[in-house]
Amino acid sequence: MFIVQHSNTIPQQYYTIICICDPLFTGILVKTIVVIDYGLGNLKSVRRAFERAGARVAVSKSLADIRGADGLVLPGVGAFHDGMARLGALRDVLFEAVDDGKMLLGICLGMQMFLGESEEGGGRAGLGLIPGRVVRFAVDGLKIPHMGWNSISFDRGLRFFRGVPDRSYVYFVHSYYVEVGGEFVVATCEYGVDFAAVVVNRAGNVIGTQFHPEKSGDVGLRMIRNFLEMV
């Protein structure tokens, strides 16, 4: 659908044509995304961001909903051990989805739970979708948590970053970061140490962001739209 903006004081040759990419008019397939509700995370803001990006979104812990989704999002704000405990039986359906090739996005704690283990709370096993561990920032004089806007550097070849300028600023809130092999790291950030800002599994269908794309303005929305195109 096209709308022509005009004004009585502007010559007609300068009218602006705006394309509204409504799936109903463009034929773009609307993707169904399930934001997994395991009792932690800013579910409403994640849902709103994906809806704004054009997805049909459900916040659910139903196994049937998760299995029927085109793509999945594992959000999270809180402690690693609490998150893993609350996931409970949902872990099996997540493994099933990943094995089937379904796209899974983990945000903040959701990303950290993708790893094999965390030192938080005395140590706890994670999902093991990506090899590595979660460790606390331990740099003298560093304010913890790392909270606010910071820039990331990334691999331009990954579709997740299409249309996003390198060194873009995104929003972080975390006290722990992931230690993971370089082959899984596709974006980095510096806060006392260089740490992984985005990780991807070998198959390319599990993506984790340490930052919050839903709170990262137009840059975050662009990444969410890119994720939907990958679903």
How would you summarize this macromolecular structure in one to three sentences?
This protein has helices at 23-26, 43-52, 63-68, 80-87, 90-99, 109-112, 217-230; strands at 2-5, 16-19, 32-36, 56-60, 71-74, 103-107, 117-118, 124-125, 133-136, 146-151, 153-154, 169-174, 176-179, 185-191, 193-200, 206-209.
Q: Any idea how many domains?
A: 1
Weakly predicted, low-confidence segments? 1-27
CATH class designation: Alpha Beta
Fourth CATH level, the homologous superfamily? Class I glutamine amidotransferase (GATase) domain
What about the largest sheet? Answer: 8 strands, mixed
CATH topology: Rossmann fold
Q: Which overall shape is indicated by the principal axes computed on the Cα atoms?
A: globular
Number of strands: 16
Structural class: alpha/beta
What percent of residues adopt helix (DSSP H or I)? 10-25%
Distance N to C terminus:
24 Å
Rg, alpha carbons:
19 Å
What is the subunit arrangement here? single chain
Average pLDDT, rounded to a whole number, is: 89
